[in-house]
Sequence to fold (123 residues):
Amino acid sequence: EVQLVESGGGLVQPGGSLRLSCAASGFTFDDYAMSWVRQTPGKGLEWVSSIYSFISVTYYADSVKGRFTISTDNAKKMVYLQMNSLKSADTAVYYCAKHSWEKGITAGPYDYWGKGTLVTVSS
Fold:
């Protein structure tokens, strides 16, 4: 059974940092791309970042480029999102998502999602 469990969210002041973690299980982690997607009440779902660890490629939304870093620890089956210089606009529930296709290099689709972790950026 595929499971994705996010952690690391919380309340942080503008300009601060957080590291989100996603623990994956139930599939061959090394062979699938992973993404972070966030949801805000007013804007809906927004793709944040993707990592294709099998080809060492990462992508970022323009809104987070230069501030966020996605990474994996394949031995631990973990995906991370290091978030620096946080802004109020980054306030959202952050979801970890597994891409559907083994060694797929497309932007999606996703077949499994975690339950999310809330990040609140506020003074």
